[in-house]
Amino acid sequence: MNGNESATGRLGPVVVGTDGSRQATRAVLWAADEAAARGRPLTVVHATGSEQHSYPPFDGSPTALDEARRVLDDAAARVARRRPDVETHTWLSRDKAPRSLLEAAGADATVIVGSRGLGGFSGLLLGSVGLRTAARARVPVVVVRGDEQSPHGVVTAAARDDGDLGALRHAALTARTRDASLTVIGVWMFLQNIGSMATMFDDIGAMAASEAEATSRTVEPIRKEFPELDITVETVKAASAAGALVEAAAGTDLLVVGARRPAHAPLFALGQVTHAVLHHAPCPVAVVPRT
């Protein structure tokens, strides 16, 4: 069972980071909606030791403290206007943002971050705070990407093998709280230019059927656990797994992927597919630790 899920099959509380930027404000409102859907409390965190280049620079002076508190008060007020029924707490941390968010999350919360903060350039599609938080977390992390739009009523999840069951369960729980359907995408890649080895693969249709069967087997425990949920399984042949997932993310409310951390990689590294999806998906992306 994923650490974000209680014994009753409920999603945990929600933690969101803010620096007062437009992207962070959207993350706060997204988190408020998520907390309301879950019926769980929301904690809004502002980290004065953030890795973002915040303005004004935090120097511990009364003026800087006043600005930090203003950022939190503004976020709390926005939550109250949007979701007055959500129990909301604020936390002013002097630590860096990723560590502050993960400390606030504990063992069972979901962390929400914006795609970039006040220091982001237009070409930087994901800020270091979001990337480092997602890479280091042992709880689900949602990076709020894309433009705000009306709900589609669909949650999409990527599935490769049984290691993604935690991500699939999180996606199913999220879909249930949102009264949405769940689409599971399995991506398989076939090398087009394999020379003389081509005779080994005479029946591409059989390969596709085998991949589809494997994906269906991976999803079967989720079907049994959530019999009331409308679950669709799609298997896609593509040259790029990341490209296929980014394409599949169009028209969905949330894309859920398992966190893949390469062996012998730095602490804040993610797998290539997860990294690419976080930079290019047109909707919010949830990164869930692999089981």
TrEMBL record:
<dbReference type="InterPro" id="IPR006015">
    <property type="entry name" value="Universal_stress_UspA"/>
</dbReference>
<dbReference type="Pfam" id="PF00582">
    <property type="entry name" value="Usp"/>
</dbReference>
<protein>
    <submittedName>
        <fullName>Universal stress protein</fullName>
    </submittedName>
</protein>
<dbReference type="InterPro" id="IPR006016">
    <property type="entry name" value="UspA"/>
</dbReference>
<comment type="similarity">
    <text>Belongs to the universal stress protein A family.</text>
</comment>
<dbReference type="InterPro" id="IPR014729">
    <property type="entry name" value="Rossmann-like_a/b/a_fold"/>
</dbReference>
<feature type="domain" description="UspA">
    <location>
        <begin position="161"/>
        <end position="289"/>
    </location>
</feature>
<feature type="domain" description="UspA">
    <location>
        <begin position="13"/>
        <end position="145"/>
    </location>
</feature>
